[in-house]
């Protein structure tokens, strides 16, 4: 069984702590170089979502995570970012691999490698509204949030 580890609004497929630094600019022009502070991202929750995590897409406005994990059964797990619970499992095409979210329309796009399709999911209802045929073996997908194009 795969799991997602939730880091604030970030999601990783690991149970390990991540560390880094953040740098801020000066508060006003001429005020100096700003400051640097260490940041430690702590795992706040672990959510069981299925096996073989292939892709993750986050709709930060809706605080929803879409985990492409069910490659054998062709499903995507929907995780509520507030409660860290799986709220739905959406059937898509054969061997789903990648996902992307249009944050303006709350539309999710999932590539289905074996079916040569992209499933379009309504992020409000968590249902597939369309299945679009694309080239052979799609794996990645991206959305332009300004033009709402894939």
From TrEMBL:
SUPFAM superfamilies named among the record's database cross-references: Nitrous oxide reductase, N-terminal domain
Task: State the coiled-coil residue ranges.
Answer: none
Residue ranges, annotated region (Disordered): 16-38
Q: Which PANTHER family match?
A: DIHYDRO-HEME D1 DEHYDROGENASE (PTHR47197:SF3), PROTEIN NIRF (PTHR47197)
Protein's UniProt name: PE-PGRS family protein PE_PGRS18
* Source species of the chain: Mycobacterium pseudokansasii
